Amino acid sequence: MDNTYINIEWRPDLEHPVLIAGFTGWNDAAEAASLAVDTLVESWEAKRFGGFASEEFFDFQATRPQVSLVEGVTRRIEWPENGLHATARTLQELGGRGAVLLSGPEPNFRWRTFSKVLADVAKDLNVEMVVTMGALLADVPHSRPVTVSANSQDPALIENLSLASSRYEGPTGLTGVLHSLCAEYGLPSVSFWASVPHYLPSVPSAPAALALLESLSNLLGIEADTSHLERTAGDYQEQITAAVSQDTDLASYVQMLEERFDAAAAAGGIRNLPSGDDLAQELEGFLREHRRENGEEPS
Questions:
Q1: CATH 1.10.340.30 at 6-65+75-293, yes or no
Q2: Model-level pTM?
Q3: Residue 72: its pLDDT value, please?
Q4: What are the sequence ranges of the domains in the chain?
């Protein structure tokens, strides 16, 4: 592996691991994805084992380093970086798997190189699936459940797990490049996208982070401590509802969004990833078949 682009401090030994990634910036409306990944790192006590080289991937005028004081005296520069964490052991909370967690700002440069290096790391650690989490601004009301779409470029995953094949055309972020490269590597991958109210772009959305984690749980059969997020989500709803009620125009707009949302839901137009044991069984069957095809499990 080219050490120009990544520094691996130690190699985690994981059983049937999954790689879960979330990037701040364009892919992270209302900080939903980064909140979700940070929650997993803390809940699973994941340990840092490496990171990507900042100089190779960031424009420091666009993504600036931060200066902080240590003990009120020493100035320390904290460089933007994509850090890699891993669970220290196989987790029952993760369905008997291990996990690699990637977080940090969306790089400014060399997306193809970044994606290739990450895919090489995934292959080296025997990662069985890559899952990215993101959030986008949409015409949705804060007062209704957060909708999450699940997409894949893997035909077998789309068929076996009833996922959607993305029909989007237009500008993309790093996640789009990463999933395209995963397809080239034969590495199964899924992307989750939460929809957050476009009239609240700068308010961190704990409800959207929770919705992403619920979708991830449905897919992988995972458990994580989300108690802090749940408390924050309750405060979010109360504070936003109170603020909206004081603005007549905004309240009318939100009511219109609620009526549109409810009509779409009644017509079956709003669909989340299904929950339950059936999905977990389908995924496990898919992964077993994938291992057989790669000679990792006897027929």
A1: no
A2: 0.87
A3: 74
A4: 6-65+75-293
